[in-house]
Amino acid sequence: MERRYASHPSQVKQFDTERLRQEFHIPKLFTPDALELLLTHEDRMIIGGAAPVNSDVKLETDLKELGVEYFLERRELGVINVGGPGIILVDGTAYDLERKDCLYIGMGSKEVIFRSKEAANPAKFYLNSAPAHKEFPTAKTTLAEAESGAMGSIENSNERTIHRFIHESGIQSSQLVMGMTQLKSGSMWNTMPAHVHPRRMEAYMYFDLPEDAIVIHLMGEPSETRHIVMRNEEAVISPSWSIHSGAGTNNYTFIWSMAGDNKKYADMDAVSMKALK
């Protein structure tokens, strides 16, 4: 498991493109028949992916890093499948996940196994894990069952649907909040006007992008914005002091996840368009 330390905004002002990517960009999530994990010290979120093709993939890592006897002893886990049909076994109970289905796995679950139903069309399980203080039951929701709402307009190039899976009024968790935003054809902007939420960090994972398409992800303090070029199935860490917005050369989908002091989806501090620099 890779480790990333938190960065102070005064430091980030001095970062060049390479350093920005080293600190915040996550280029590799899905390695066939392997588990990829990254621990960020931003609220100690773990971001990763499991890509079973010909063999199962177990949720396991160097437990010295976490100071526990098993991965979810003091953590919870959110999973969204962005590939073909798959199965997640949680302490022997099987959960089928189609593309864009979500599974929450509560603290105390000892064995988690990821499996694809078809090697020719393997599942890709995107993972977000946060520290937990209370056990909540494992629960699944589909895209159709999620709390969803339309936002934006084609005139502003940001017509999109926001789906909330793990949140205050949906699947219950200790602190993890997780959902998905789908941009409609002809739209490319997300999260603009921008905001920050000093009480929570966030991570974005962009997908449904053609091979030659990119998203310009904007980050940084509102008065000191920077950008990171994102491609299909790549993630980015957003500290609590940073905006998190983007514009693509194509419409796309992204998964957002948060951890911090509360689970209120609407808890954010709006940034005026005039304040951006």
List keywords for this structure.
277 residues; mainly beta; 7-stranded mixed sheet; 7-stranded antiparallel sheet; 2 helices; 24 strands; 4-deoxy-L-threo-5-hexosulose-uronate ketol-isomerase activity; 4-deoxy-L-threo-5-hexosulose-uronate ketol-isomerase; KduI
Structural notes for this entry:
The model has no long low-confidence stretch (mean pLDDT 96). By secondary structure, this protein is mainly beta. The protein has a seven-stranded mixed beta sheet, with no helix packed on it. A seven-stranded antiparallel beta sheet has the order 2-21-18-23-15-14-13. The chain has helices at 9-12, 17-24, and strands at 2-4, 25-26, 35-40, 46-50, 57-58, 75-81, 86-90, 93-97, 102-105, 112-116, 125-131, 139-141, 147-151, 160-166, 177-183, 189-190, 195-196, 200-207, 215-220, 226-230, 234-238, 243-248, 253-260, 269-270. The longest helix has 8 residues, at 17-24.
Task: Give a topology summary.
Layout: E1 2-4, H1 9-12, H2 17-24, E2 25-26, E3 35-40, E4 46-50, E5 57-58, E6 75-81, E7 86-90, E8 93-97, E9 102-105, E10 112-116, E11 125-131, E12 139-141, E13 147-151, E14 160-166, E15 177-183, E16 189-190, E17 195-196, E18 200-207, E19 215-220, E20 226-230, E21 234-238, E22 243-248, E23 253-260, E24 269-270
Parallel strand pairs: 1-3
Antiparallel strand pairs: 2-21, 3-4, 4-11, 5-10, 6-9, 6-11, 7-8, 7-10, 9-12, 13-14, 14-15, 15-23, 16-22, 17-24, 18-21, 18-23, 19-20, 19-22
